[in-house]
Amino acid sequence: LGKLLLASGPSFELPYEVTGKWYDSLQLAARLFPTVLPLLKDSSKITPILDVASDLLDSNLILVFVFKPWQETILKYADKRYRLTKADTLNYTVADYSVINILKKFNDNPSNAMLKKWLQVEGNGYHKQAIVLALLANKQAVSQQALNDLASSKNNRIGLYRNLKKYNKAALFPVKYRTQSYFAENLVQDAASDFSDDEANIRFIQARDMKYKGKKWRFFFYDVFISDEEEHWLAVAGPYNMDRNDISLSEARGEIYSEEHYDHSKSVIQMNAVVMKMEKPE
Question: Which end of the chain is more exposed for a tag (fewer CB within 10 A), N or C?
Fold first, then answer.
């Protein structure tokens, strides 16, 4: 199979029938892989090969030194992706995660320099977070600006904090955003994304101290507006400890009150109802 793939023309893309079998049996792919690495020079084939390579590396079925002879090719591809995303910040692909992971595995000066270069590109916060974590894993310095950019996003804030904790780097998390209210905003944004595929805009209503499971806790309430449907829904994040310095990461969650649309005139009733629903889930 390796010889057949090498003999294929430069415009011949790898069919899913081939790559799908690699994913079905990574052990088999690991044995075949060294023979297909020359295909990294083919622009139509490099992306699926790097995707499988990343999975093989994560599964410890292949060692990174196998890719060393092709490191320059991979770096050139990474630089091409950098230039494309810098020119168009929406030009990110899922396959970029594989490139980030392989550069992380190389863990040498050229690869870490490329990761730092990618970090300069504005746009997809999830990619930026993957790059930050790759650099931290390689014991590389990460700019405070990059951390501030990620923490300022209500989509990435909690994920960044949890991942920094994994690397015992929680102290790097920007102090400004390590608050109950900022974390609550992230939880509600996540809940809104799960609730509807359409774009959701969230607006803070108020924080309320309420009884929950026999104790007093703090809850943060939001108006979630689903723009395509022009509908308003009530959302809540909590429960949070009464100590404002406790971000209650393990206790708090986001919830949408889906029984009826948000009605300001019934806000107190709806707030009590959604907290009761959280206390006694069906």
Answer: C
